[in-house]
Amino acid sequence: MRAHDETGSSAVEYGLLVAGIAALVVTVVFTLGGMVRDTLLDPGCDKLAGQIASANGGDADCEN
Question: Which controlled-vocabulary keywords does the entry list (predicted)?
Answer without folding.
Answer: Membrane, Transmembrane, Transmembrane helix
